[in-house]
């Protein structure tokens, strides 16, 4: 159900998110007792509070025009920046992240490991090449793109 809602909302709002803004992600989930529809938007230089208010004024009325209404219950609309650990949901977003420190979760393990965190050295559209630390040793792993369950930018400590 949540996937259906995300798809319908994305179809409806993506065309109105115009330059310099970029639609990064749409999420719908229950947090505590509330359903939250999160619209993550960015622009070069980052999002301001005024930007989120402006985008909320554009997006909110559009959500009421989706027929049939995909929302089973009341929800809260949250328009915000994706933050430092933004999701990397598309091949294009991964390509843009080459040179960045990322976290990757896999559908199936590589050498018994399903989670990697390290520097994305390369991505050719099919394979991610990631340099990571394993017991103090620098290692490199090639990860087939189709095995990636989730990827996001990560903060290096």
Automatic annotation (TrEMBL):
Entry keyword Cytoplasm: yes
Pfam family for this entry, one: DUF150_C
Any one of the GO BP annotations: translation
Keywords annotated in UniProt: Cytoplasm, Ribosome biogenesis
Main subcellular localisation: cytoplasm
Domain Ribosome maturation factor RimP N-terminal: 13-85
Span of domain Ribosome maturation factor RimP C-terminal: 88-157
Superkingdom in the source lineage: Bacteria
GO CC, any one term: cytosol
InterPro entries reported for this sequence: Ribosome_maturation_RimP, RimP_C, RimP_C_sf, RimP_N, RimP_N_sf
Keyword check for Ligase: no
Compartments in which it is found: Cytoplasm
Alphabetized NCBIfam families for the sequence: PRK00092.1-2 (NF000928)
Functional summary from the UniProt entry: Required for maturation of 30S ribosomal subunits.
HAMAP family: RimP
Family of this protein: Belongs to the RimP family.
Stated name of the protein: Ribosome maturation factor RimP
């Amino acid at each position: 159900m949540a996937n259906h809602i995300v798809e319908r909302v994305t179809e409806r709002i993506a065309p109105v998110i115009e330059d310099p803004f970029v639609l990064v992600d749409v999420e719908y989930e229950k947090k505590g007792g509330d359903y939250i529809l999160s619209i993550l938007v960015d622009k070069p230089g980052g999002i301001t509070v005024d930007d989120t208010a402006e985008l909320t004024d554009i997006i909110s009325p559009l959500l009421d025009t989706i027929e049939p209404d995909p929302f089973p219950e009341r929800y809260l609309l949250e328009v915000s920046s994706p933050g430092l650990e933004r999701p990397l949901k598309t091949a294009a977003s991964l390509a843009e992240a080459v040179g960045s420190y990322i976290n990757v979760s896999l559908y199936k393990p590589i050498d018994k490991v399903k989670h990697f965190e390290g520097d994305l050295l390369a991505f050719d559209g099919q394979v991610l090449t990631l340099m990571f630390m394993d017991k103090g040793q620098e290692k490199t792993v090639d990860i087939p793109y189709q095995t990636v369950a989730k990827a996001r930018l990560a903060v290096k400590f």
